[in-house]
Structure formats: structure tokens, C-alpha cells
Amino acid sequence: MLQPFYQKRYIEAGCDEAGRGCYAGPVFAAAVILPKDFYHPLLNDSKQVNEPNRNELRKFIEKNAACYSVAMVCNQEIDRINILKASFKAMHLALDKLKKRPKYLLIDGNRFTPYYDVKHKCIVKGDGLYSSIAAASILAKTYRDEYMKNLHAEYPHYNWQNNKGYGTEEHRLAIDSHGLTKYHRLSFNINPQQMQLNFEEEGIIM
Total domain count for the chain? Predict the structure, then answer.
């Protein structure tokens, strides 16, 4: 069962990102501050929730969160500063947009670039432990999925409406056949020759 808060002394915001391992498109991040009585039985790490339930949760979070925000960093910026820094930048941008100012941050993962002088705690797999991080993971994932579905109309060969830019076999074969687009992350070594070497590199959860 998700824990509502890590600590109760300060206003707490959960932060998470989506799309860090993708071959194409931006990385998204969300920041969420939840009220004390927030609860939804389906809330969990976005990777453990199916798409219809994620979309239901997004509406519930947007309606019932104390405040929330979502931000993105484009693939060109990812290539310029690297994906880790881009993920932190997206989180910072999301925090900048919050209508309430948190005094404590819960960050999914094991590293983070401090946000001004706000205290933070990095929690590995925190999106499966704390409600605010889980809520942030749902928002980041659903907003990014929606963005990639819109890009699909421009470049349908890559089927981003289904793979969302992840390095599936289908996506890799499309890159092999059609080359790279302006939305691909060039720093990820995803040219056809490199992909041939790494074709069985890792499993992808969408």
C-alpha cells in the first residue's frame, strides 16, 4: 500500500519523469502536491497500471491534487546536456510551475540535482512506495504518451502511437528502413549499424 507522505513537517511534492529511455521524443516530468485525504485504489507506479486506468487516474489527480504541474525537455536539449541532466531539468521546470511552493521533495530514483535550497529525498522505486511520486509518474507518463500520439501523425512509419518512442523491435526496424527524424535522440547511438549490434540489449516496458 502506498504511503501518503514521507514526512509531515513540510509541504511535500513528489516528482517523477517519463521517457528517459526512449529513442525519440522529449522527456517529461511532473510534480504533485497531494492533500491529506487523497486516495484512489488504482494509484500505483505508472508502469504497473494499464493505459485506461492511467487515463482515469490522470483526471482524478488533476481534479483532487492540491496542485500539480508537468514539464518537458525536448530531444535536442537531451542531446546537448545528456538524458540524466535533462530529466532533472524537466523536474525543475515542473517545480517552477507549481502554484504552491513545497518545502520538501520526494524524487523517484537515486540521484537529483538540488532544487534551490529545498530539502529532498531520493527514493529508488519511490513511485511504488509514495502516493505523490506515483501521482507524478501517472501524469508524466500520460502527458508524454499523448504527446507522442500527436507526433505519430507526422511520422506514422515509426508507430509512436503504440511504442511511444521506446526502442521496440518495430521502432528499430522502422529506423533501419526510414532513417532518423528530427525527433530522434542522436546521442543515443540509434543509427541502424549501432542498433544491429545492440538489438537484444534490453526489455522495454510501455
Answer: 1
